[in-house]
Amino acid sequence: MKTIIEPFKIKVVEPIRMTTKEQREAIIREAGYNLFMIKADDIIIDLLTDSGTAAMSSEQWAGIMRGDESYAGARSFFRFEAKVQEITGFKTVIPTHQGRAAERILFELLSRPGKYIPSNTHFDTTRANIEYRGGEAIDLVIPEGKDPQNLHPFKGNIDLEKLDNFINKVGPENIPLCMLTVTNNSGGGQPVSMTNIRQTKEVVSRYDIPLFLDACRFAENAYFIKKREPGYADKTCKEIAREMFSYVDGCTMSAKKDALVNIGGFLAMNDVELANQARNVLIVTEGFPTYGGLAGRDLEAIAQGLEEVLHEDYLHYRIRTVEYMGEKLDQIGAPYLKPPGGHAIYLDAKTFTPHIPAHEFPGQAIAYALYVEGGIRSCEIGSIMFGKKDPVTGEHIPPPLELVRLAFPRRVYTQSHFDYVLEVCAAVYKKRDQLRGFRFIEEAPLLRHFTARFAMV
């Protein structure tokens, strides 16, 4: 059937406050043109992120009522631990309050000046945690991953030749681990193939370098492998996920993505000694090892969400929704990163607004217009998030891609909501020549996109 139906029924609703264009112009101006700074009540369709924005199921809410809030050894932890180990196979599971907390613990132990962490593409919090400790985050995605129009089925793959050359260039003793982001969020939600994961492990094993996954969207990546990689069509997504994890030594996970919850994460690994060090950091900064900054009810919700996210009816609906949006954007003519990824549509800001140079943030111009036109909140993933200044000349160094991410919260919006988003995209695209760039008024040294203020050029 061509019509996408949501594989769930709606039991509870939340009202959306409708605003006028004039109201939205005043709201975003007051927020310093930063969509992170706008109150949620002033948003009509919120596509800022898919992190922590999911609608939980009746079974997850039931689990919340069953949550054991004991300080130590709560049964909710053991259910959570068992579910993570069932999927990943890792010996040690350490809960944290969200993914960046797991990253902070890992890189507090392993990142320091003179150390390098190669990846296909690091996401913003991963990069920030590496650099905050003095290390250097290195992106080595394949060339196809930097071409928005290339239809390579696994554009999230790491370039194996570049990885091998980089290890030899800086020395394996200066690389405490290699990391693969699945799916590759900063590269357009693009998947990584099973072959690439396995071959990456083969490369780093020659140098005795551990391999970790940033596993936020492991289930979506597993579904892409099932649909696109030969030999996996008859395997379940759970079997595919288990194989993915079998090739790596550990992972960080923001449960706010593919565990379908509003808070939580974990750090998991096979290295018992490193895990013991991580637990010590956890106790000081997050909480006791069996709750890690989370309530027992949240651990219950994560365990149930990890079960539900691997249901193939759900994954088909999830991935097909993104494909549907891409097909409709093709009809409009609006450029986006192809093929559509797993959790979002990424508008290609360079092509969308070629008259706005990178240092004037074309993605921000589009994000501003989407909000004013239709109350849609999106996220710039380009020169604001990943751009840098030349330390000598001060000139702007843009990232390979200038994107605007429309991230789809899980089980939140219906097809009519997405059709509305498409109408707004069409309206903005028609008057794209009128869009203007932006410049910074205030910016923080790290993760500046969260709190920066702008002025229109």
Automatic annotation (TrEMBL):
Keywords: Lyase, Pyridoxal phosphate. Its cofactor is pyridoxal 5'-phosphate. It comes from the Bacteria. Pfam families: Beta_elim_lyase. Residues 46-421 form the Aromatic amino acid beta-eliminating lyase/threonine aldolase domain. CDD domains: Tnase_like. PANTHER family: BETA-ELIMINATING LYASE-LIKE PROTEIN-RELATED, TRYPTOPHANASE. Belongs to the beta-eliminating lyase family. This is Tryptophanase.
